[in-house]
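Q: For a teaching handout, I want to show students what a protein-ligand complex looks like in token form. Below are the inputs, and the small molecule is NDP. Please produce the holo structure.
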Amino acid sequence: ATENDSSNVGSGSGSGSHTVNGSATPDCKIALITGITGQDGSYLTEFLLNKGYEVHGLIRRSSNFNTQRINHIYIDPHNAHKARMKLHYADLSDASSLRRWLDTIRPHEVYNLAAQSHVAVSFEIPDYTADVVATGALRLLEALRSHITATGRTHVKYYQAGSSEMFGSTPPPQSENTPFHPRSPYAASKCAAHWYTVNYREAYGIFACNGILFNHESPRRGENFVTRKITRAVGRIKIGLQNKLFLGNLQASRDWGFAGDYVEAMWMMLQQEKADDYVVATEESHTVEEFLEVAFGYVGLKWKDHVVIDKRYFRPAEVDNLKGDSSKARKVLGWKPRVGFEQLVKMMVDEDMELAKREKVLVDAGYMDAQQQP
Ligand code: NDP
Ligand code: GDR
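A: Here is the structure, written as tokens, with NDP included.
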């Protein structure tokens, strides 16, 4: 656990002299990530640190610490000279904070991963979702444009986290040439962000790329996305902490990959000579029911003994079938996924079995309630 007071930016960080494990390395690349506390932000940070980058993340204020996914790479501000990952308070709804951190950090690469990223929740808070996902991306692009104009730093590159949800009801396989037909406020907002990014590339010559990423999961996936909800339940049911799992539409089909593989594609896009848009996908699609089969079957359980259909998890408009055609990314970037569907499910179940075992110790000792469902 860390104090996370956002004060570990050196006062001279705008000067161009940056530190890596205590030694000044003026040539090292600097990345700025919004959404660093999310699933993808944590994997991308690890990936970039391994490549020798200095990584700056924008975090938003919350009433509780929200840095669980990056605590293992966080260095206390009191040892700031050792830190290659630095955190700063900002928000995609606050344009001034975005411009200020661009001017201070002077990044080479900007990854815009921040979002209200839950599709079902976007029907409940559509206005907020649009403000963060669509207008938030515009604010960041505009901050970047004025930063570049003021400083002449034309080499700065921008990545926009686009989504297969933009394809919505357009049938598979979906590629860069497939028309968008969004089915939620989230997806419509991601379409706006996509076109803002294309527009800033065309209008101002900014090196700006859209990654159109299909679903990607991991043991760090938020617990209210269907894959993690299932694997958390599998662990807890197996260990005796839970009995039922309430779900919605089991017939929806998704192209599920591993988040660790997908962040590499983000970086690859920004290493090209020319900015462009790319679909990133495994090119395999499975229903939620198939995910249940593999996850429960792996630990010797039958999903039908535990799953209860609850109407509240159905969406006002559903995206039935997503399956990507990522041939452009494979050909131009040389990207391909390393983790397949079954391996992904088993990786998530393995981790959540361990988590459930730790929970059980706390429950048995009276330190924690055995909640039915997280
Ligand atoms: P998460 O929901 O795990 O993370 C979202 C991040 O955005 C968190 O760090 C969150 O902060 C931050 N955030 C939310 N609102 C704001 C705000 N107003 N200002 C600043 N930061 C904010 O998403 P993922 O990591 O899964 O996804 C990353 C991006 O990729 C998102 O834009 C998502 O829409 C998109 N995407 C994801 C796919 C997937 O399958 N995972 C597929 C395609 C696109 P906090 O931790 O405080 O909540
Ligand atoms: P998705 O992911 O909407 O594809 O968006 P999610 O895991 O939420 O849903 C996938 C499918 O499962 C069905 N489903 C349920 N979903 C949830 N969350 N909870 C349930 O109980 C449940 N039961 C069935 C859904 O109806 C849906 O069809 C994710 C997010 O990461 C987005 O930010 C990203 O852009 C897209 O993937 C690509």
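A: Two things your students might notice: The two ends are 21 Å apart (CA to CA). The pocket of guanosine-5'-diphosphate-rhamnose (ligand 2) is lined by residues 117, 119-120, 163-165, 214-215, 224-227, 229, 247-249, 252, 254, 288, 313, 315, 318 (CB under 6 Å).
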